[in-house]
Amino acid sequence: MHFVNVGMEARPSNAATPRELTQNPLKKIWMPLPCKNGLPDERICQRMVCMTNCPTLIVTVGLPARGKTYISKKLTRYLNWIGVPTKEFNVGQYRRECLKIYKSFEFFRPDNEEGLKIRQQCASTALNDVRQYLADGGQVAVFDATNTTRERRETITAFAEQNGFKVFFVESVCEDPEVIAENIVQVKLASPDYTNCNTEDAMEDFKKRIKCYENSYETLDEVLDRHLSYIKIMDVGRRYLVNQVQDHIQSRIVYYLMNIHITPRSIYLCRHGESDLNVKGCIGGDSGLSPRGKEFAKYLQQFIQSQEISDLKVWTSQMKRTIQTAEAVSVPYEQWKALNEIDAGVCEEMMYEEIQQHYPLEFAMRDQDKYRYRYPKGESYEDLVQRLEPVIMELERQEHVLVICHQAVMRCLLAYFLDKTAEELPYLKCPLHTVLKLTPVAYGCKVESIYLNVDAVNTHRERPENVEVSRMAEEALLTVPAHQ
Amino acid sequence: MELPNMEYMMRRRCDSAASVPQFTNSPTLIVMVGLPARGKTYISKKLTRYLNWIGVPTKVFNLGQYRREVQSYKSFEFFRPDNEEAMQIRKACASNALKDVVIYFSKEHGQVAVFDATNTTRERRVSIVSFAKEKGYKVFFVESICDDPDIIAQNIADVKVSSPDYLNCDKEEALADFLKRIECYKQTYVPLDDEKDRRLSYIKIFNVGSRYLVNCVRDHIQSRIVYYLMNIHVTPRSIYLSRHGESNMNLLGRIGGDSGLSPRGHKYATALGTFIKSQHIKDLKVWTSHMKRTIQTAEHLGIPYEQWKALNEIDAGVCEEMTYEEIQDNHPEEFALRDQDKYRYRYPKGESYEDLVHRLEPVIMELERQENVLVVCHQAVMRCLLAYLLDKTSDELPYLKCPLHTALKLTPVAYGCKVEHVFLNIEAVNTHRERPGNVDVSRDPEEALKTIPDHF
Fold first, then answer.
1. What ipTM does the predicted assembly reach?
2. Nearest to B306 among A4, A51, A377 (CB)
3. Are B325 and B449 in contact (CB under 8 A)?
4. pLDDT tens digits for range A316-347
5. Are the beta carbons of A294 and B305 separated by less than 8 Å?
6. Closest CA relative to residue B435, chosen from B403, B396, B387
7. Model pTM greater than 0.90?
């Protein structure tokens, strides 16, 4: 299945003689010489989803409380996770910084000249920041504002053309009063604009705010806007209109937006029960559960039962230890090869002490850049993320799911849900015998950590102080967790 | 609790593919909608090919074919809305086609059926929806709407004029008749309606993909279908497939590994570069794997190339860098199992062809989006890509012939793909091992090694 992130690097080459190849020691990627001082050219090593030379400006469109910010944040999180540097620019925030104090909906009245001036200025400032971001290595910018008039959109399109950015509009149209009310309750009442308001007053004011926009709202039009690239999302995803998708990244964005939903649900993440190899301090392999691991599996079954979840899907990897764990939960489960633990290549089934002994150089490089480092004949965290993209996509489509997986895999999934950077990801704490319950709330995710009270070894190795290739063995092994 | 060994092995080998979760128990009936010459059959066949390749058993039921079996075609008059007799025949054909759909789902393990017909009236669609509801099938409509006369004319020239209906006609007659046929349908055509059909699941494709309307996608397979349909195009282009030049491992008869090119391999790469230049291909994209031998090959071309990890050769796990003789020596049972079911067999700590197909799906998706592309890859990978492009079954796939030093040029034409073999006249070892006569675990080594190609 699916649509997985693919890494692509463009390499120009000489017409005459083929260049000598060298393998980058960190990522194990073959690249032509010459390299600067023997080290890989940063640009060449970038793994990016899309290699369009143009950055992309995503522009949201819609009345207030239609989910624009929700979509902006979620899309940004997804794109960053798959390796596309993305940032959102919320005009409301710019307005708050400029105005300092929000008084009432009157600010948004279409006849409020002063208000209009300030709002236009904020939009301009935001666009300037967009320009800066995209010039500085950003690939996608999400311009989160109502953008409800054709005039405003034309200004933005002109700005994009001037700067060589592609534009993709994301319009959210919704007339269901219940959905809108729920939106307002979830995110607007808690907004900085309404800190000193009671619920009723805030609700009233916000509704009047929406009214201010309604009269001048010009939805993206099938005929008038037929040359623009956009997706129109209607009624929270019941219906989509997709127009003039230009390239790979827009196609991926459309696919993602068409798979997300807002039905309340929870995602449970846990690792397999403690395995025999865990106990020995060995990484990888395909061993079975230790006695304590089996006990955890029993407790997991009880925990799941106590949650009383209707229609829970259970996913495992294709490795024995996750399957054994799922067997104890006694619910039908599906095996995903994509959920297999990171492949440690030549280091499979070794203890850290053995890795230090046999591959001290590799061990040091891994500590230098744990996210990008690829085991010889194995994988990197970066590879894992690509491999897991279809899992994330299907998680978005599903409702209640329990994913029984592995340490590195769980770190990648968690990083997606909690918006962690590539630097943080490989060091996220995912201890054995602990279930994380993730529940989407407002713009983010609530996390509950449930330790099921069965002892297990610690498998978390912190980054040691000294990551130099020249370091002593003891320095390398300082942070190795205890094992048999 | 310890899983019984055999059962675990079975699960390891035979479960449903990694990234496609288990199918919904209900089969899906895809129903095409649209006037003649709007690309319905093109879409039906292409979609079916894609779904079968990713492991979803799918079949097309083309109403025109049912009609041709009972009635030899005379003229467009058959399709006149006031032709009572013809109407009866057409209804009977539709009924028979749907009966075959039932057999396909219930007796032949089909998962998706594509009902390829005009289905242009609400009445017809309502009856299909009730039929599906009664049987417990999900329904997904795919409507193709096109009012660009150039596209329609091109369609007709590409596939209608050469249809069995017009065997004894000259081009102009065929064209004139077909245009009248379209008129017959136009009078009663009711497209899927925003309001009235808001509870149906469908995608509307406008003008060959410039715009889409997607309504009520209900499950995973529908979501995948939508994504696929939104990525395909009909712009003429060619896809070039080639393996890396002969490698040092190839010479030694070893599988896998990450070796460099042999001298002959370098020669091939140079020749490939010359060939590519001679083709004067507009805007050619070149893709390689992350393995040294494909990159070395691309280096000779003098064109920018992109590396895809997904294009890496099949991982032979514990058998990496072994010769077949060594595999027979060290893992005779594995060797036999592989010959028994080469598509599903997974090397210990390695991959299967089935895994490869999943790994390659994003490559296929991007190939669909692109125009002219040269893919420099490996034997097993090329077999998978070729099987997709040429609609080969999973039984045929692992035995497709993809010799070294031969480039394939694939050009979509009508409903399929034209293939041109380009042998660049540089000798190379043969790496193709046929399925031997005896695949039993109990066989003698000689029987196992019978079909091994020569090597140093």
1. 0.90
2. A51
3. yes
4. 999 999 999 999 998 899 999 999 999 999 99
5. no
6. B396
7. yes
